[in-house]
Structure to design on (65 residues):
């Protein structure tokens, strides 16, 4: 989609979690392994970034490719 871009997941562990909304209070969707490439929309809320599938990931675990 227009405005989307790729980011690499870089965590302090083996993986990070993806949630239905911008925060851990939202439903857990899946884990994403460290080193994975994800597509983000560019939309953010606080420290959370929206993924192209509409779910959310913690922004501090993402770095530009």
């Amino acid at each position: 989609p227009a405005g989307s871009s790729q980011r690499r997941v870089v965590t302090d562990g083996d993986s990070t979690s993806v949630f239905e909304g911008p925060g851990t209070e939202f439903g857990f969707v899946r884990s994403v392994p460290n080193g994975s490439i994800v597509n983000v929309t560019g939309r953010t809320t606080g420290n959370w970034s929206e993924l192209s599938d509409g779910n959310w990931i913690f922004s501090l675990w993402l770095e530009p490719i």
Observations:
- The chain has a mean pLDDT of 95.
- The radius of gyration is 11 Å.
